[in-house]
Amino acid sequence: MVLKIALVIAIIFQIIAAIVSLKLTKRTKYNLSWIFITLGFVFLLIRRVIETLPFYSDFKPQDFRLLYIWFGVASSIFFAVGLILIGKLFSYMERMEKEKRASEKRFLSIIIKAEENERRRLAKDLHDGLGPLLSTIKMSVSALKKQENNEHSKEILNNLDNVIVESIKSIKDVSNNLSPHVLDHFGLNKAINNFIDKINTTNTLKIHFKSNLNEQRFEQNIESVLYRLTCELINNTMKHANASTVNIDLNYDIYSINMRYSDDGIGFEVDNLFKPQEKSTGYYNIYSRISTLKGKIDVQSTAGKGVDILIHIPFAHD
């Protein structure tokens, strides 16, 4: 009795297995490995039914002994071939996953390049468009100031002159933030030095910068990403770390560019740091930019002990 129930349960599970295998065959676009595995389940199901029939009917298994053996042989062959071929399926899936990741990186790289091009366009429009107009207005105001005017008119002209000077300075700052002219014309080393000098003059944070780049130039994308992420890291330190000192080492060799960034701030927990929801620190944005260059970033930090960040960006020939 127990054997009869066990055989029925086995048939039920065999039917379920065959149905699931058939669905997987459809999902894998009728991949050959799953077709063989499905056939193996079907032949195994038929064999199991033949085994069960003598318990519920006058069926004599010896009459179909040869057929029973052939069903067993066929199911074994189908399972074996299916499992051999399934390795190719996993290789195909792995290859598709790699292509997907590469496609995502290319797409992100295109977005970053488009963003940098748009920054340059806006910076050029501000610098070459509004800048000269305001300079012309300032010259006109300066000419008016030299003429005979009453005290009230002089005061108005002086105020107007000051406003124009501040406007010109603001446009230069906005233009430089959008696309640093120093980076385009003189390279990464001078651009970072220029940015750090502005921070150091405020006396809010002391930044020590060491580099062997000198006047060495790199691909535009590499320079833009490294400059942006350096500015982002410094801004993060100023906003969140409550630090007094930052140390930056930027060096290159024939294989790669490497940066080490550290501060003596309050530190933070690095768990889930590179998830999109962690928007307040900007590290996900940094990670995304480095990924487009096939680079790596390693962040070490604990509460109260500052942060130590290593960034490695290989060159194309590495």
Summarize the structure.
The protein has 318 residues and is of the alpha+beta class.
Structure description:
The chain is 67% helix and 11% strand. It has 2 domains: 2-107; 180-314, 2-Layer Sandwich (Heat Shock Protein 90), CATH 3.30.565. Strand 2 (245-252) and strand 3 form a beta hairpin. The chain is α+β, with helices and mostly antiparallel strands and 318 residues long. Helix 2 packs antiparallel against helix 3. The model has no long low-confidence stretch (mean pLDDT 77). A 5-stranded mixed beta sheet has the order 1-2-3-5-4, covered by helices on one side. The longest helix has 82 residues, at 65-146. It has helices spanning 2-27, 32-56, 65-146, 151-178, 181-186, 188-200, 220-241, 283-292, and strands at residues 206-211, 245-252, 256-263, 296-301, 307-314. It is elongated and about 125 Å long. It has 8 helices and 5 strands.
Overall CATH architecture of the largest domain: 2-Layer Sandwich
Strand order of the largest sheet: 1-2-3-5-4
What's the CATH H-level superfamily name of the largest domain? Histidine kinase-like ATPase, C-terminal domain
Distance between the termini: 70 Å
Overall spatial form: elongated
As an assembly, this protein is single chain
Mean pLDDT: 77
The CATH topology of the largest domain is: Heat Shock Protein 90
Radius of gyration over alpha carbons?
Answer: 35 Å
Tell how many strands the DSSP assignment holds: 5
Helix content: 55-70%
What count of helical segments does DSSP give?
A: 8
Low-confidence spans: pLDDT under 50, at least 5 residues?
none
Order of helix and strand elements from N to C terminus: HHHHHHEHEEHEE
Query: Which range does the strand content fall in?
Result: 5-15%
Assign the structural class, choosing from mainly alpha, mainly beta, alpha/beta, alpha+beta, or little secondary structure: alpha+beta
Number of domains: 2
Instruction: Note the main sheet.
Output: 5 strands, mixed
Can you identify the CATH class of the largest domain? Alpha Beta
